[in-house]
């Protein structure tokens, strides 16, 4: 179907004027007359029986095909493992069944859909299966650890006593891991004091500068992310203990742990700082702020949530290290609050030493220690989410009220200056609650 646009016919006087016009003008008028007709190409119409496929939910046909493919895969795998072949084993049964399910499901989808839709459905099944497998593995580890340590973790003395007066054959009502909990907190605190300023400064340097030095530092940081933890422990053991002559202590273990935490925080913080919009830096520079003030007041507060996540990732890496602590801090069953002198133990090292014991009670204490370590990491992630989980630029109610009070104070100071100079005072805007929507 074509659509034509035509102009109305010209009058007789206009034709006479066009006849008496200059030849160049007649050519222009003829060109204008020829270009007044516009012909649109035909627009193809979609067939009325074609329906849109919903991508956000499963339809009835999808559920039927998935159920039919699962039933067919189960029956085929049972035939392969019980009748037709000599294959056996639970793991092989699951793997073969999943492969047969994928093939059957792809064939069923191809009966009603085109090739891109078949690839999309099969990839969706594979990704969903991978996510379920990872979730099941994580859930099984958590449940297994809690189940093996259930007898020791329910005892109150497990959190209030150390192992200084407890022997291998003593019951679970005696002894605990207070010394390991305190030692872990002391080591991680010292490691954070060392790591956070260095890592944030290095991330800002990588993000704000361009040159060979930044490229070299980024390469070194990338290489350090793959550094084995035993090498960090050996390095601190050789330099801090053997060469400098210091004894094994919690401080030495904190330095070794900080080496493992440093590249993780730097890489994560560098990625987060790159996500800060460039127009914020440009606006700060347009107002005359120097680069250090822009970084301190604009870039870092904007990326606060991401930087907090980076620090927590480093803490999760450092809190689970065992080899550096074993080499640099030793092992003890008593409480030690001095990180400079004497051996100090952490939760991962305590769990490692207790699980190696042949005594059932010590093994139960070891699994309970691992469960406490998981709970501690969960609490750290929760605190990080509460502290830094708010999006950039979004203030809480308390922060909104504080900003409104600061704005009122600034307005009062400006009005006082205007009154002192004899200038008219600006009209004050209406004040309302920060969460109130203006009408």
Automatic annotation (TrEMBL):
Segments for region (Disordered): 1-54, 394-439
PROSITE patterns: ABC_TM1 (PS50928)
Cellular location(s): Cell membrane
Pfam family, one: BPD_transp_1
Protein's UniProt keywords contain Cell membrane: yes
Single annotated GO MF: phosphate transmembrane transporter activity
This protein's name: Unannotated protein
